[in-house]
Amino acid sequence: MKQKILIEMQDLAKKYYKIQTMNWIQSKGDGFGGAGITLEYLLGKLADNDILPDYHGIELKTTQINSKYSTPIGLFSTALDNQPLQMQYLYETYGWPSKNDSSQKVFYAKINADYSRCTKRCSFKLYVNYEKECVELQIYDHYNKERIKKELSWSFYHLKLRLETKLTYLCVAEVLKYYRTHNENYYYKFQEISFYELKSFEKFLELIEDGTINVHIKITSRQKGEQWEMYDKGTTFEIYKEDIEKLFTKLSVSIKK
Question: CATH number of the domain at 3-66+167-197+243-251, please?
Fold first, then answer.
């Protein structure tokens, strides 16, 4: 690990300790990303979806520890890249009617290396193709298991670039979440913090192959004027907190005094 990054981690740990002493903190954002937005705000960083690490070469992630459900950590988001408009093709060809408006389509799915039935007709799975140097999103007829011959994929080059640029160094903050009904606001209490270093891109591929890492596709529709259009909310590679040390090496970082 570079000495400069270690100093930045020690500085971040010190700032985070000060945040911990603030006890319950009202959310600075809405939705599922509220904890991360709040943490970035407290660190003096504006919320964004930057493709670069959040804090001086370190990517920041939060994970809620008092939820009834285990929620994954989003590693990074990237669209299918082997041809233009692949996400639009996926939406238009395999999307299904929205529950809110049956005249509009959605495509929401978590897909890994096992068969994931997303529609009545089709199943999807991830396949690491070392010969073609890509991760394929394969589509199968759900009933006869025959593959539908449409090439949809992410290139190794692009995935490696995103992973190593954004996630060589990682900080994961555990948070408690509480909803106050009287003022309809969420509050967060920041707990343990951990630092990690990425093992390798090859390990990332291995974890896709064994189903540890999945991809979460979120495409819906939105109205623009009098017209409706596809709205891509992001395609994110995810891993659960309990599996984080399969992809990263945990580091020992003390508060710099």
Answer: 3.40.210.20
- pLDDT for 257 equals 57
Convert the pLDDT of each residue in 86-137 to its tens digit: 999 999 999 998 888 888 899 999 999 998 877 778 999 999 999 999 999 9
Contact 250, 194 (CB under 8 A): yes
Q: Which residue has the tokens 């039935």?
A: 117
Longest distance between any two alpha carbons in the chain, whole Å: 64
Residue 203 to residue 168: CA distance in whole angstroms? 13
Q: Could you give the angle at which helices 156-167 and 201-209 cross, rounded to 10 degrees?
A: 120
CATH 3.40.210.20 maps onto the chain at: 3-66+167-197+243-251
The model carries a pTM of: 0.91
As annotated, the residues of the chain forming the CATH 3.30.70.3570 domain(s) are 77-159+205-237
DSSP code of residue 243? G
Structure-token pair, residue 232: 């891509």
Of the two residues 223 and 93, the one the predictor is more confident about is 93
Side chain identity at residue 203, one-letter code: K
Residues 152 and 86: their CA atoms lie apart, in Å, by 7
CB atoms inside a 10 Å sphere around CB 151: 13
What is the topology classification, in CATH, of domain 77-159+205-237? Alpha-Beta Plaits (3.30.70)
**Region for 13 from its dihedrals, namely left if φ exceeds 0, alpha if ψ lies in -120 to 50, beta otherwise:** alpha
**Within 13 Å, how many C-alpha atoms sit on residue 244's CB side?**
24
Distances (CA, A) of 153 to 82, 86, 194, 219, 235: 6, 9, 33, 17, 12
